[in-house]
Amino acid sequence: MKILVTNDDGIFAEGLWTLVKELKNIARVVVVAPDREQSAVGTAVTLWQPLRVRKVNPVVPEVEAFAVEGTPADSIMLALGNLVKDEIDLVISGINQGLNLGDDVHISGTVGGALQGYLHGLPSLAVSIARGDNLHLDSAAKFAAGLSPKILTGSLPSPIFLNINLPNLPLAQIGRAQITRLARCSHINTVEEGHDGKRKYYWLVRQRVNQITDPETDVWAIDQGNISITPLFANRTSELSAVLDSLCSGLLQELKSGGGSP
Which of 83, 128, 129, 191 stands the most exposed, by the fewest C-beta atoms within 10 Å? Predict the structure, then answer.
């Protein structure tokens, strides 16, 4: 199994390499990621200027890594179209430091990177964790690494595109893995006006809605201390939900019972 990894926090982000370290235990891994922060670029693709790529020394030994002067979507397109010669089985984007829930998915660079894998016919995951003082990145990495081979067994429709968000908790403290849908409204967007002494400027501000009460949504799941797994761009049939629910719930229990808590 070979897994292609990208992110929107940049090639040397801690979340990316925590994920790679865990994935390397189960698969061959190649990293193709932006050379700098690319948060909130969504699905942006660079069309009107050349893209430059350089090979970098990996944080995890024996992992091929490329830094792209572009977006997460650019990175996956370059990887699948030119940089990676071997066949890729799975694309994972993350681990993003900050949740991608509700309407955030439409501007998320993390989700935008995974989307390109899905559009190329590959199962793809976008993985994010809630912010906090002490990030439990290992929880997200272990869950993604545990889920990856299960997705490739053929029990789920292929390709599948999942947006996965975890609370910032040790695995043992996470409630359950919950199959969810996107909250219809999770932010209030406002525009603040200012002046720098020479001219007027505007600042876009996104504020989280205080409460989502629908228990089927991703926002509600995270607020309850659960993992949110949201199928994107696929028919969310009851059969898919049932299989995915069983698979992810079983995985979380395996990780808890196996002492997987960081």
Answer: 191
Is residue 262 domain-resident?
no
Q: Which domain holds residue 177?
A: 2-183+213-257
Query: Half-sphere exposure (CA, 13 Å, Cβ side) for 73?
Result: 18
pLDDT over 70 percentage in the chain: 94
With respect to residue 122, please indicate whether it lies within any of the assigned structural domains: yes
- Distance from C-alpha of 200 to C-alpha of 223, rounded to nearest angstrom: 38
List, for residues 121-137, the tens digit of each pLDDT value. Answer: 999 999 999 998 899 99
CATH classification of the domain holding 31: 3.40.1210.10
Helix, strand, coil % (nearest 5) of the chain? 30, 25, 45
Task: Give domain status of residue 188, yes or no.
Answer: no
Which residues does 9 contact at the CB level (< 8 Å), separation at least 6? Answer: 15, 16, 37, 38, 39, 96, 97
In whole angstroms, give the CA distance from residue 165 to residue 95. Answer: 9
Burial of residue 181 (CB within 10 Å: 0-12, 13-18, 19+) is middle
